[in-house]
User: What shape does this take?
Amino acid sequence: MQTDLFGSDVSLDTSTAVEAWNALQLAFLAHGASAPDHLGATLKAAPEFALGHATKGLFLLLLGRRELIPTAREALQAARQGRADSARERAFIDALAAWLDGSPARAADRVESVLDTDPTDTLALKISHAIRFILGHKGRMLARLNTALPLIGEDHAARGYLMGCHAFALEENGHFAEARKSGEAGLERAADDAWGLHAVAHVHDMTGDSRGGLAWLSGKEAAWAHCNNFRFHVWWHKALMHLDQGDHATVLDLYDHKIRAEHTDDYRDISNATSLLMRLELEGVPVGNRWEELADLSESRVGDGCLIFADLHYLLALVSDDRDAAAHKLVARIVADGQAQATDYAPVFDHPGVAAAHGLEAFGEGNYAQAFQSLTAARPAMQRAGGSHAQRDVFERITIDAGIRAGQLGPVEDILAARSALRDGAEDSFARQRREMINDLRRPAMAVPAQ
Assistant: This one.
């Protein structure tokens, strides 16, 4: 048994295996594209390394793709047959088993049992952070990092990355000034920490400071150039800032050459693309035939059902490209999943999933009154769908525009006020323009002069 660069004991015997494992963990922290290569090198050097197999399985499940579940089960089998010399390593195996049994929340609990013993365990902190994020557990994300960071030394190899995680958790819980401070300081320690960089971008988004956000990201491209598909998401943030500035040509250019430079079917990439195109269309910007490839990919994911967050973005593509049959099929499947046997997924598919899905389908059909009714029913529970405030804001924007089109001006003003309160009182160009629309609609028509 040896010790990794973060001070955790691992069931490895050779320096070659430890070096590969250390490289894997650093790449995971940085969202590096090299992570799969380092994991492969680790398991090649130590085929019996149970923690490596368990981590592989957890990584696969984080991708939210049903076809990867059998491979994750194979990883669990290899982990159970492998070498795990500590309760820490066995906890990760248990976490994978729990998630495969339909309970990502219990998986996060098992990972966090490691933190109950050692609150500074780097791998456990990052995996817990990732699972809690997709579950929408913003308070749990913050609590663990609040406990860990005061115990982590200034010279700890992961301190910068964990400060980036802390920044994101702080931002999602509305502590914007603290989030910005933590994210900026973390990036000084870990120049390739795209997660921390993007956490500060979230702060700028949530405080209506798109100009400051563009200044923050400018010149820091090296912080996300090395990333896996997470780099597309950082470009998405930059596009949102240009959208807020009304620079639609730049937004479309970023869409074509950065955000959808690769036509992947990863749900996170499709989420970036669909939510950006929908924001553009709500602003009256023609997007040409860009919906078509997203709808093709989304139609192939209709039966997926791994995450309601992913399904709702697939639905955006389908309704926007007039794939009525596929959209209806997806909505029906979400309803069925909400009524399925008890797993962590069923309650979330049931609420907010069903109401949100009906609302998006109605919006695509031009039935704005029904869309507004359904989407407002989903609003109080949308945190449970996972993702960030910035990502879920596309559904808030659709709700607001549905309400305006349905003539529900008073309730829309309430939603705009709640949206501003979430942003510490700040308003972006979207909110200001919608308030102007409401004022225009309320202004009495000019009297027609007598003939």
User: Anything to note?
Assistant: The chain is about 70% helix and 0% strand. The beta strands are 2-3, 9-10.
